[in-house]
Structures are given as C-alpha cells and as structure tokens.
Amino acid sequence: MRSRGKMGGMAEGALELVAARFGALAEPMRLRILQALEGGEMTVTGLVGTTGAGQANVSRHLRVLMEAGMVARRREGPNAFYRISDPAIFELCELVCRRMRSEFKAAAAKFR
C-alpha cells in the first residue's frame, strides 16, 4: 500500500527528480551563490568576488544550479548574467533554517 502523505505517493521517477533538486542544494558553495543572487542578477565575475571562489568553481556550481532549474542565464553582448529562476527556493531555505534555529536553541538549552 502506497502512502498518501504530504508527498502524495509520488512515483519513483518523480522521487528521483525531487532528490536531484535537493542534491543541488547539498553543497555550501551553491548556497552561497544562491544567497548572492538573492540580491539580483550577477555575472560570474561578480559571483567570484562575492563568494571568494575561483571562476571555474563558480561556473561548475552555476551549471548544476541551472540544470536543477534554480538559476537562469541571459546573455548581453559578451556578458552572461545569472539570476534566480525559482524564487520558491528561498522559502525552502527559510523553512530549513527556521527548523535548524529551533533545534539549535533546544540543544543549547540543555547545556545551561
């Protein structure tokens, strides 16, 4: 019997897509890039300056985020500008952060 909880009894293929989306968030540098892009479009050069990572590293992570549908690119002359294509990603991050703050607060209370 298949569960009909919050995930609606998703098929195996759909679960793999969801796992890939979460996997794209499983790297701190990708979260830094998303955080930087929250303020608006940026070039790779801008992201390098903001994150402190190398150009090749930023480009590699941007590719993963683009494949996951979280980031989009537009070209303007020789420049490529990256932006958040799925603003709901910040709702997900806020949900996780809020839960973690609650857990950390509870753990800290045990040490008082």
The helix/strand order is HHHHEEH
Strand order of the largest sheet: 1-2
The global form is globular
The N- and C-terminal alpha carbons lie at a distance of 46 Å
* CATH topology heading of one domain: Arc Repressor Mutant, subunit A
Radius of gyration: 17 Å
By CATH, the superfamily of one domain comes out as: Winged helix-like DNA-binding domain superfamily/Winged helix DNA-binding domain
Major sheet description? 2 strands, antiparallel
Count every beta strand, where a strand is a DSSP E run of 2 or more residues.
2
What is the helical fraction, as a range of percent? 55-70%
Alpha plus pi helix count = 5
CATH architecture of one domain: Orthogonal Bundle
Name of the CATH class of one domain: Mainly Alpha
**Secondary structure category:** mainly alpha
Mean pLDDT across residues: 89
Strand content: 5-15%
- Uncertain residue ranges: none
